[in-house]
Amino acid sequence: MASEKGVMLLDFWVSPFGQRARIALAEKGVQYEYKEENLTEKSELLLKANPVHKKIPVLIHDGKPVCESLIIVEYIDEVWSDKATLMPSAPYQRAQARFWADFIDKKVYDCGSRLWKLKGEEQQTAKKEMIDILQLLEAQLGDKKYFGGDSFGFVDVAFVPFTSWFYSYETCANFSVEGVAPKIAQWAKRCMERESVAKTLSDPKKVYEFVCFLKKKFGVE
């Protein structure tokens, strides 16, 4: 691994975490080799590249692995710094961007998973939590074009892959993102106008098919 030059991404097609890395690489115009992982039979390369967590995504740059999606996005931004800067230049704004990206990391995926895994009162609790999360993010977005202002940036990259899961969340828990957080729905549409996002995100119906597969797998239908 250490002798290989170039950029490689170990990923899984529907992963919102891997899609963060793909969007960042696309924004920077970086050419890379994409390796789809079978998460039930993880490759030797993945286990070697990420021996601690054994998870995708992993960015391998000139043979050196970088793990964890937000760390990967920051790494991409720092290494290919001549184009499409994702992190704000001011230290306080960078701290705020990291805070909200961390909030998304800790809240959205976990709560979204509970929307399709749970039923009844437990699902209703998860739905209320998801609405609260979306409305908090909407308040942070405000009337700005993107979370960082006029430029597509770090928080947008962190959050936008989850928009392709909105249909699944809505269908499983019977609510409308546009109904509870209209500015987030509008922001999602703006992001989809970017080539980096449109070419990366999964079709929401395909994501829902994957969620249905997971529901069968975990016996939660």
From TrEMBL:
Q: Which Pfam families match?
A: GST_C, GST_N
Gene Ontology BP terms: glutathione metabolic process
| Protein's UniProt keywords contain Transferase | yes
Which InterPro entries does the UniProt record give? Glutathione-S-Trfase_C-like (IPR010987), Glutathione-S-Trfase_C_sf (IPR036282), Glutathione_S-Trfase (IPR040079), Glutathione_S-Trfase_N (IPR004045), GST_C (IPR004046), GST_C_Tau (IPR045074), Omega/Tau-like (IPR045073), Thioredoxin-like_sf (IPR036249)
EC numbers: 2.5.1.18
Show the GO MF annotations. glutathione transferase activity
Q: Which keywords describe this protein according to UniProt?
A: Transferase
Looking at the record, the residues that make up the GST N-terminal domain are 5-84
Ranges for domain GST C-terminal = 90-218
Reactions the enzyme catalyzes: RX + glutathione = an S-substituted glutathione + a halide anion + H(+)
GO cellular component terms given for this protein: cytoplasm
Function statement: Conjugation of reduced glutathione to a wide number of exogenous and endogenous hydrophobic electrophiles.
Which protein family is it in? Belongs to the GST superfamily.
- Protein name per its UniProtKB record: Probable glutathione S-transferase GSTU1
Q: From which source organism is this entry?
A: Rhynchospora pubera
